[in-house]
Amino acid sequence: MIDLSAVRVRAKFFFEGERKFFIKGVTYGPFAPDDAGDHFGSHEGAVRDLDMMLEAGVNLVRIYYVPPCWFLDLCAERGIRILAKGYDSSWSVIVVVSLTSAGPKYWMAPGKA
To answer: How far is CA 96 from the centre of its chain?
Structure first.
């Protein structure tokens, strides 16, 4: 199980605990909405994409829409954090994912648009 600690800002750096955290991020989507209105493509496609990102060393994915729970679960399983920003720039959240023995937990912290 992957343990994702909180990432905090100290001076001009990000830290995860006492270790510097270097963002290695990519933008994901948006894709055309599916029947449920989600903009994340298929589950199988996301699995493939996230596995390739993990192999490349990605640790953060920037998205433009509120993600479905299955996408959060896939990211949590791989230790990939999510930065979500509203497509119309009216909202912004950082999604913190933590895997525990009881399963994943998600916190959404509002940001500035």
So the answer is: 7
> Does residue 5 fall inside a structural domain?
no
3-state secondary structure the chain: CCCCCCEEEECCEEEECCEEECCCEEECCCCCCCCCCCCCCCHHHHHHHHHHHHHCCCCEEEECCCCCHHHHHHHHHHCCEEEEECCCCCCEEEEEEEEECCEEEEEEEECCC
**Total of domains in the chain:** 1
Query: Which is nearest to 84 in space by CA: 76, 74, 72?
Result: 72
Residue-wise pLDDT for 30-78, tens only, equals 888 888 888 888 999 999 999 999 999 999 998 888 788 888 889 888 9
Q: Is residue 30 part of a domain?
A: yes
Please say whether the beta carbons of 73 and 64 come within 8 A: no
Domain, as residue range, for 35: 23-110
pTM for this entry: 0.72
